[in-house]
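task queued by scheduler; priority normal; single chain, no ligands, no partner chains; default sampling; output format set to structure tokens
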Amino acid sequence: MKAGCVILACTLLAGASWGSKAGQSLKPPCRSGFSQNFYTVIVPREVLRGQSILRVRFDDCQHNREVGFVSSDPNFSVRPDGTVYAEQEVANLSEPVQFMLTALGLHDPRIWETTVKLAPAGHPHPLPLTKLGIEEMFSRVWESQPRVIKFPRKHQRSSSVNGLRRQKRDWVIPPINVPENSRGPFPHMLVRIRSDQDKDVGIRYSITGAGADQPPSGIYNIDPISGNMFVTQPLDREERASFHLRAHAVDMNGNQVENPIDLYIYVIDMNDNRPEFQNQVYNGSVAEGSKPGSSVMQVTASDSDDSTTANGMVRYRILSQTPHSPIPNMFTINSETGDIVTVAAGLDREKVSQYTIIVQATDMEGNLNFGLSNTATALISITDINDNPPELTVRTFSGEVPENKVNVVVTNLTVVDRDQPHSPNWNAVYRIVSGDPSGHFTVRTNPITNEGMLTVIKPVDFELNRAFMLTVVVSNQAHLASGIQSSLQSTAGVTISVQDVNEPPVFPVNPKLIRFEEGVPAGTTLTVFAAQDPDHFIHQTVRYSKLSDPANWLKINRTNGQITTMAMLDRESMYVRDNVYEATFLAFDNGKSGSPQASGTGTLQIYLIDVNDNAPVLVPQEAQVCQRARLNSKVNLTATDADADPNVGPFGFELPTFPASIRRNWTITRLNGDYAQLRLKISYLEAGVYTIPVIVSDSGNPPLSNRSMIRMKVCPCDDNGDCSATGAVAAAGLGTGAIICILICIIILLSLVLLFVVWMKRREKERQAKPLLIDPEDDVRDNILKYDEEGGGEEDQDYDLSQLQQPDSLDHIINKPSGVRRVDERPVIPESQFPVRPSLPHPGDIGDFINDGLRAADNDPTAPPYDSLLVFDYEGSGSTAGSVSSLNSTSSGDQDYDYLNDWGPRFKKLADLYGGGEDD
């Protein structure tokens, strides 16, 4: 058992009204059952028979009122309207009485229960939580159980409740109440189940249901012979609050003797669970200066015990408050809801920004002697309101600033504000209310320090104002809270001294625009472009120089700023834009003590008035027409003039009188002020290129004329008026003879190219016909290395000399490509051609080399034999090649030397010696 269990009665007067609380417009959904799970009533010690004690309310959500009530205590009964009354006189009620009320529906198999506890007036309850008191309470609950439960015998008719007739059981089995956390001893007998037939036949009793033969099994059991029902272990209401068992009676053969009866076991709640807060730390806030009764926050604790009894009824109270300023009890808590509210005024964030509250939750309706408690911490933050206006630290500030400087901080205005830093209640806003009518200054707020940075935003002039006297007012970004007055220290004066600096000379008119006609000669004075020194209190000399003059037309007098031309001004120059020429000049003083020279720039704009100094020209300069007038034989001409109005169009167009062929063959017509049309006057003109002079005049005063030469190409045209290809050639001015010459030149050029190609191919063929004796890939002379050592001749060489012998197959000879390149130099004299001997058998690759050399020697009679023949020295013994002495053998055998006749004239002598054996 977690803790002692005590039932604390709450007074319930008989005949109390039932219903919803005032102000609740929405009713919860209907739920069948008693309005309370536990009723506690204080009654007199002497209760008379028939005396009404209390009235329980039951709602079946159907409003048919077909419900009957049964009491588990025979001394008390229940009327159909829920009124509990004494069935008989109860004299001297000295101890509390507790029993169950059961509601039974006529057509509903469900049952509902509630507990009623009658406490005699003046009885000291609850019992003290001593071991003796707890055991006494458990024993009272055990002893209040019915001792014997019998099986019903038969069904009978009885009067119905509220005049309605219904079938009623013989009697109702009262529920069995078992306290939780009982210490035993176990098993503990609850009731005895008995059948009236146990005298006639042998009866066996059993129970079924959750807690007996179903999980959690083994909590309840029954003696099959005596019918005594036991509980075997302590119960926990928070784990399971009720059990529904069914009792059975059978004979020795297992035949059912009685109909099963339902047993309802209710676990009586004991105060064994402490209240548990949802959070160990709660955070809340309330604005400073709040009135008493202002809501702060809510803390909530829950108790696992029965909330309808005092065991689960939690009450709250504040144990401590830290700090105690301004009073120890600044807050209170609603004991039932856990709402924390302020009690007194005087919350000031600037003094106390946070309170720590220890809240205690106690069950048993807050009874500190018998209830179980738990604690939690509530942190209450005091939120800031703007109840402290900003205050400037001094009443007068001062600073200085150079003239003509902007974005310079003159001075910092320091301020103090006790409200929450970096909040609207703390952020300072500065305003200049007087002393700066021209708006030279502004005050910006430093977001970190909250200082006011007095800054120059418009240049100040020492010659106009040597000092400023400003009045600055500071306030908060947020409005002051109601009832808070602005402080006098929110206003301060600022004295600003202006420092004189050397200012650059200033051109009074900048840029300066003058007007002149173009074409003014060099040395003409245009204007005086002079600057003024703004430093009136110091006399300085101003000098001038040229800074920018794109066309180099101007010069300026260094002393007085007089502008003179150095060249003729031309409006049509590339440096003139929209008739305006710009030049920039520099004016600088000689400075003063401690200050460098200062300079200023000025721009002179010269508007050039146009004069008629450009003759018009015609475009295009070249054109093409057809040689027949009925086709495309006209060209449109456009006149252009670099001058401007009125020295341009309308233009006049005419053809010269000389030569006479111009006006005889051509005619020109003005289309409008800028365009004219030149066309062929005669019906046919021979193709060719003609140069036609056209005189064009502008409208200037006096006008200017220009003789433009138009190069006209006349060509034959097709039916569409387009010049044909041959016609284009003819129009280019080439006669028949010229065309023939061009064709002959092309043919000669092609012939030269063809001869060069033939010569190159022949040269390549000759180079291939006289190949080298030795293929560079087969030349092994570069690969023979000499070593200064002596050995055993051929026996020391890792060579396969069998390749020098005649091979068995001649395929490699037959398939060998013709032509062997020589290694020695080719002779320059003409070569004699000899018939090539047929290929002969030869010993392998070395034989191929010898055979190719012989073939080259046959075709080159000028080359000595030793150029191709190699001498191989033989040293040592045991060579597989044998001895060359065999060449001197006199035995010819069957050897045929007739093939020597085919080896050419060099081998004729040898052929005569060996070839004709029979003739000899």
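post-processing summary
- Helices lie at 131-143, 660-665, 725-731, 736-769, 811-814, 844-858, 908-914.
- DSSP finds seven helices and 52 strands in the chain.
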